[in-house]
Amino acid sequence: MILGPRLEYHQLPSTPGVEVCMLLILQPDSTEQTGEALLSELRGAGLDGQMVADRPRRVIRLRGTPHSIEWLQGLPGVLHVVPAQRPFHLSLKENPDQKTTIRIADHTIGGSEPTIIAGPCAVEDDTDLIAMARALKRSGAHLLRGGAYKPRSSPYDFQGLGREGLELLAEAGREAGLPIITEAVDERTLDEIREVTHVVQVGARNMHNYALLKRVGAAGLPVFLKRGFAATLEEFLLAAEYLLEHGNTQVMLCERGIRTFSDHSRFTLDLSIVPRLQELSHLPVFVDPSHASGRRRSVSALAKAAIAAGADGVMVEVHPNPDTARCDGPQSLEPAAFELLADQIRSLAAVRDGQGETVP
Ligand code: PEP
Ligand code: MN
């Protein structure tokens, strides 16, 4: 699923003589003089730079072949170097402190408190979702998750209850006082779920579905975008860019495990993307340890590692009786284990952010 040759931040195309075009995003406090000084330094190195006029911040468009990206990155006044052929401007930070926060009910995502999203993989008709949603709320969950439309690898597996599932999820959320998040698997289901949901989930399999991303971007609801399991960081941010470009400012990113040669877990949780995303993007960053590991016994450790690595929140699958779950039971926590985990997440985040004293 690699989408052709990519230009990394740390390397230039190896073909000699190929003219590259890139954008230098300048520090927010840069002045006209900073820009002029940079332009003359670039000209001195044989490069052709021009200020881009119609931008809220100072940006230089650069043509030519600089000897290294590090050199460009180190020039005084430069914040980011972005390959212009693959621009992802809206999802990148303009300054190191920029952070998108998303208010949902009485909770702020991307704020000081870590966000906990919990619930079953799929909404089922024979589980008491209301009772579980109430228990999740008491344990400190901020959003209730549950799929009404499930993108399953096998067409013979349970595909979700559809509209009935949506109604059950909405009712459980209402009764428990929890906003809900559910997945749109295509444009038709988006139209259905947007009537009831507080957050639209775009799943890993749909991260590359650009037609859907455009529609979700324009839907006017916060979006929870999961990383495709073969998507690079650049492709992930470009998928977010589709949402932002179509007018949506309320976008969350979620690492949920990628495909590697490692065969001891369902996927490989790429925790190293968390600090990298936090460094590059202002969007809140989540981790889903349930789909990443596929194993209940790994979920709590990975969720805590995600918080320690700087995630703004986690999404965890919880089921009142995982052994009978119609979908993803082996990776679902029981409510009691979730209660303990939620507690530990709060303590860990406090330690991470310098408010606590002991690590649980
Ligand atoms: C899910 O969250 O239910 C799901 C299917 O996740 P993913 O898209 O990450 O596989
Ligand atoms: Mn699942």
List keywords for this structure.
binds phosphoenolpyruvate, elongated, eight-stranded parallel barrel, 14 strands, about 15% strand, about 350 residues, 11 helices, binds manganese (II) ion, alpha/beta
Topology:
Elements: E1 20-26, H1 32-44, E2 48-51, E3 59-64, H2 69-74, E4 78-83, E5 102-104, E6 107-109, E7 115-119, H3 129-139, E8 143-145, H4 163-176, E9 180-183, H5 187-193, E10 199-202, H6 210-217, E11 223-226, H7 233-245, E12 251-255, H8 273-280, E13 285-287, H9 289-293, H10 296-308, E14 313-317, H11 335-352
Parallel strand pairs: 7-8, 7-14, 8-9, 9-10, 10-11, 11-12, 12-13, 13-14
Antiparallel strand pairs: 1-3, 1-4, 2-3, 5-6
Helix pairs in contact: 3-4, 3-11, 6-7, 10-11
How would you characterize the overall build of this protein?
The chain has 360 residues and is of the alpha/beta class. The protein has eleven helices and 14 strands. The chain has helices at residues 32-44, 69-74, 129-139, 163-176, 187-193, 210-217, 233-245, 273-280, 289-293, 296-308, 335-352; strands at 20-26, 48-51, 59-64, 78-83, 102-104, 107-109, 115-119, 143-145, 180-183, 199-202, 223-226, 251-255, 285-287, 313-317. The protein has an eight-stranded parallel beta barrel with strand order 7-8-9-10-11-12-13-14, surrounded by seven helices. It has a four-stranded antiparallel β-sheet with strand order 2-3-1-4. A hairpin with a 2-residue loop joins strand 5 (102-104) and strand 6. Helix 3 (129-139) packs across helix 4 and helix 10 packs parallel to helix 11 (335-352). The model is unreliable at 1-18 (pLDDT under 50). The structure holds phosphoenolpyruvate (PEP) and manganese (II) ion (MN). The site of phosphoenolpyruvate (PEP) has 10 residues, from loops.
